[in-house]
Amino acid sequence: MDDQMGMQQWIAQSEQGIESLNLGVEGVLEWAQRYLRSLEDRSVCPPAVWGGLLNHMDAAPPERGVGIGAIQSLIDEADEEFMDRLVHWGSPRFFAYFPCSNSVPAILGELMSAVVNVNGMLWSTSPACTELEVRMMDWCAEMFGLDDGFRFDRSEKGGGCIQGTASEAVLAAVVAARRRCTRRGIDRSLVTVYTSDQAHSSVVKAAMVAGLADDAEDRSRVRVLETDADLRIDPRNLERLMRQDLDAGLVPALVVPTIGTTSTGARDPIEGIMDVVESFGDDRAWVHVDAAWAGAACVCPEFQGLLSGAERADSLCINPHKWLLTNFDCDLFWVRDREVLVDSMSITPAYLRDKASENGGGVIDYRDWHVALGRRMRALKLWFVIRCFGVEGLREHIRGHVELAERFERWVDSDDRVELVCERMLGLVCFRVVGGSALTKGLVDAVNGRGRVMITHSVVPIGQERAGESIARVSVGTPGVQESDIEVLIEEIGVGLDRVLMGN
Ligand SMILES: Cc1ncc(COP(=O)(O)O)c(C=O)c1O
Questions:
Q1: For residue 203, how far is its CA from the centre of ligand 1 (angstroms)?
Q2: Fewer beta carbons within 10 angstroms: which end of the chain, N or C?
């Protein structure tokens, strides 16, 4: 630590600390502008080997800090050492996985949240933190056209919270579904979960974390349904398995359909699934709809039909951090019966008891809506985004990406070296190289190896007509993407095709 700048300057609450903020903030802002401008020219996925960074770093932490006066040197060092070793998810030429969305208002909201650094575990520990989140959940329910039963302001029992990720949301659904069973007097060891071979791996993981499966292959109480030719759950198959399990003494407790599966964007038939589940009567299974990626599109009325049937489901999640201009992490999780969710995770040691929460105080305490007790003010970035762009702006953002994906889809259709694997879903186009799986895999490797754009490889699941076959995924969704980036994508795929088809 330098002599002039003592420990006090590290402490944001001290007068010295507050004054010194500008030293760092200016430097970070200047770097942020430089970084964001550089995205277009950077390799999206620079080549890397394990240890590339580790070998550059001291093995032990520094005994003496550089001091706040030298903070710029840390900004420079972070830029030099770390940034070239990242995959640039914010690049307009990032077409891999599903996007990680971002925007200036979201960054500013995150910064404000870091400055206040409150813990909203109880309403009373930061009232506006909770109330802002409650209102954002209702605003988003309205934006996505959700029914009143998921809302705080229009139902007795419904509502939602911000989870870190969709994986945390499905874990919450698993424990809530199990709690609903145990409250009915059902032995918890009989609780069984249903999903599909196209569902995200987080569903099976949640079952493992909740103790319903010993490992990822344990199928004693987790059913991974084979999907139909369109990679969707077949409700008749679901019904057959559920009845079979019931006859065997198990209890169908949770069904997890997906709107917009990770591999190909398939939409499970929620209405048909609800018909099956509801046919089991009042003791029916909990249905959690995973719309982590595709749900964001429902800000546009023309896409709201995707969620049709969710008005009969018990919970639903959508990730604004994937496609709604809100930086990671932000998953919206709604439930129709918040009491059973809270009951599934509620434990109240003396130090968490207060007057507002007890005796029917009528407040929302988010601490028992998820695993973590502490929670930061994540709703602030969402508020910034919605206030800044308005719902109309968010619609424009989604529609622009869907149009760009259509542009790419037209190219796939027009080039006889490649073919669509399935119908485009919103911003996701899946295709393959005509002539074999190895060529498709080779194409993805060749394209990513050049680093100008990044796409993803996936595999059609076991049980399908072309089981085990490689597919290439192009997901349009990074905020800055434009038509010219789609042109670069097509150009790069052309180069890759020349390479794999002609060995160039
Ligand atoms: C459909 C779907 N559900 C869940 C997830 C898991 O998301 P998270 O990283 O928020 O846990 C993903 C990730 O891509 C996904 O595509």
A1: 10
A2: C
